[in-house]
Write a structure and sequence with these properties.
Number of strands: 18
Strand order of the largest sheet: 4-5-6-15-13-12-7-16
Shape: globular
Strand content: 5-15%
Helix content: 40-55%
Structural class: alpha+beta
Radius of gyration: 29 Å
Distance between the termini: 35 Å
Length: 564
């Protein structure tokens, strides 16, 4: 099922926890002697104030989490959360174990003091002279770090914006502190935590893949292959590292396990098939040959693949609910996914290849969220000022005939009805000054192709077709100035226009694309578009796909996560 809205989930938790507080109050009144009494409020307040400094690992958010604890304890009449009659509760021990194994969620156990808190509980249990203050301090410390852990699991550890992700409009608040009540009373922390994690199918699949790759990463020799010959290796040729290569491909499930006994040094047909699968899963040319790029991908340490999964899980925690119709573009995967329902199962998606921005800083496709509101058939291309200045204006000054042949024109004013002006030195100066603008008329050679999907955004980045479809045959598709070219614009238009008053069939869409005039069709309701960046994706067939960090965002996010 689709992820329920995080705010709605928060409301559900508050209702549930109000019931839990009532139950706890009854228990407290029946056996107040087993908890701190109201007279010890000052002791607990002091412990809460000290909680952040008590924790040895203090990642981002601990202080905020600790600040929320006063209200949590106040609502439960200052009863401790994690101990009963000077003994840690089973729930406390279960939560501590969850913190100690936070890596199962793609987080770092060392950030949450699970080991240190376990030792403190053991010391208090063995010390009959332990004071209420000491019990209160470990209680508040566990509550504080648990709340940090829950917040990180729910919405990520860092703000997306410094990581290059303009997702501010969809960032939701952290989970309510009331969830501590649930964790303190439920026998299974994982059951409490499951609803706060992203509910996307592909988040769960990737988390499951993380466990598998952690095991694989324990054997660094898997990706230690003998150097390959300088020339690309094709089927039938000899490579001394063939046994090691087969061993790796078997471990990655690209080659059947029955091949493990083969000591043959020839690149055989079965291994070629396995290499093609590996190449497909790593966005490489699927030629079945052992070339430079394939060898480089094969020898990436599996610990690095683990890190790619962790970083992608962090990013997926930033995302909102995926409604029916949501369009997702994963930049390093060069793929678009349009949900036909509120599920993110692959059978419910329209999928297609895309072309994204070049690797240069000024041409990279930005990461952002916007609403698709309009489809434009036979669009004009209004040249962005940055492209005009860097590329087209120098060419226009040197060889205006070339641009005229490509149907560019200088116009005054806004709108498609703006009248062209002559290409004169004065008008070129006005164009450079920004008082005139350059556009390309609709047609088969228009840079936007014959159809554009309009999603207003500050980057002037849109989805559109292309006059150069042959580029989709390339595995690495970084060719645009930032806009996203789609390989099947007719299918995408058919999906986003399906709820409009007119019946937009594939035939009618093609007819509009081949028409004689520009046509703008508003959508019945806006469609959420998420332009994202994840270098690891797990799919329902059990495969895990890894992609090159083409814009360096993995390195950037890793740096942010390592700063405390």
């Amino acid at each position: 099922m689709a992820d329920p809205d995080k705010a709605v989930r928060g409301a559900h938790w508050r209702v549930h926890c109000q019931l839990m507080r009532t139950a706890w109050l009854i228990i407290f009144l029946m056996g107040a002697g087993s908890r701190l009494a109201l007279a010890d409020v000052n002791t607990l307040d002091a412990a809460i104030a000290k909680a952040d400094s008590v924790l040895t690992a203090r990642p981002r958010g601990h202080r905020v989490a600790c600040n929320a604890l006063n209200e949590v304890y106040k609502q439960r009449d200052y009863a401790l959360l994690w101990s009963h009659l000077r003994v840690p509760t089973p729930q406390a021990l279960a939560v501590v174990q969850t913190l100690r194994t936070a890596d199962a969620y793609g987080l770092h156990p060392g950030d949450y003091d699970g080991e240190a808190i376990a030792r403190r509980f053991q010391a208090l249990e063995s010390n009959s002279n332990a004071t209420e203050t000491e019990w209160a301090e470990v209680d508040a410390a566990l509550a504080c770090t648990t709340l940090s852990f829950v917040s990180h699991l729910h919405a990520g550890r860092v703000d997306p914006r410094p990581a290059g992700f303009d997702l501010a409009a969809i960032i939701t608040s952290a989970v309510p502190a009331d969830i501590l009540e649930e964790l303190a009373t439920h026998p299974d922390p994982s059951a409490v935590l499951a609803p706060i994690e992203p509910q996307f199918v592909h988040y769960r699949l990737l988390k499951e893949a993380l466990a598998r790759y952690r095991v694989l990463a324990q054997d660094p020799s898997l990706t230690t292959l003998p150097p390959r010959p300088p020339a690309t290796l094709s089927q039938g040729q000899i490579y001394a590292g063939m046994p090691a290569l087969r061993r790796l491909l078997i471990a990655l499930s690209d080659l059947p396990a029955s091949s493990v006994a083969s000591a043959e040094l020839t690149l055989d047909a079965e291994t070629v098939t396995a290499l093609k699968r590996f190449q497909s899963l790593h966005a490489l040319d699927t030629d079945g040959k052992l070339g430079k790029n394939t060898f480089a991908a094969l020898t990436v340490p599996l610990a690095h693949r683990v890190r790619q999964i962790e970083l992608t899980l962090e990013r997926w925690r930033w995302l909102p609910r995926l409604d029916a119709g949501t369009i997702i573009v994963n930049i390093p995967q060069f793929r678009l996914f349009a949900l036909r329902s509120s599920n993110d199962h692959e059978a419910d998606m329209l999928r297609m290849d895309v072309i994204v921005g070049k690797e240069y800083p000024h041409t990279q496709t930005p990461v952002f969220a916007a609403d698709l509101k309009q489809v434009i058939f036979r669009p004009y291309w209004n040249v962005p000022y940055s492209i005009l200045q860097r590329e087209l204006l120098p060419e226009l000054r040197e060889n205006p005939r070339h641009l005229i042949a490509q149907h560019f024109e200088i116009v005054r004013g806004d709108g498609d009805d703006a009248a062209p002006v002559a290409i004169t030195p004065e008008n070129l100066n006005a164009l450079a000054a920004g008082t005139l603008r350059l556009r390309q008329r609709p047609g088969a050679n228009n840079a936007l192709g014959l159809i554009m999907f309009m999603l207003p955004n500050p980057y002037n980045v849109y989805l559109h077709s292309t006059p150069t479809p042959q580029l989709f045959r390339r595995a690495r598709r970084t060719f645009s100035h930032g806009c996203i070219r789609v390989s099947d614009p007719v299918a995408l238009a058919e999906q986003v226009l399906r709820d409009t008053s007119e019946a937009w069939t594939a035939e009618k869409i093609r007819s509009a694309m081949d028409g004689k005039s520009t046509l703008k069709v508003p959508l019945a309701k806006p469609v959420q578009v998420l332009i994202l960046y994840g270098t690891a994706v797990a799919t329902e067939d059990g495969a895990v796909r890894f992609f090159e960090d083409i814009y360096g965002y993995d390195r950037q996010l890793e740096g942010l996560l390592d700063v405390k």
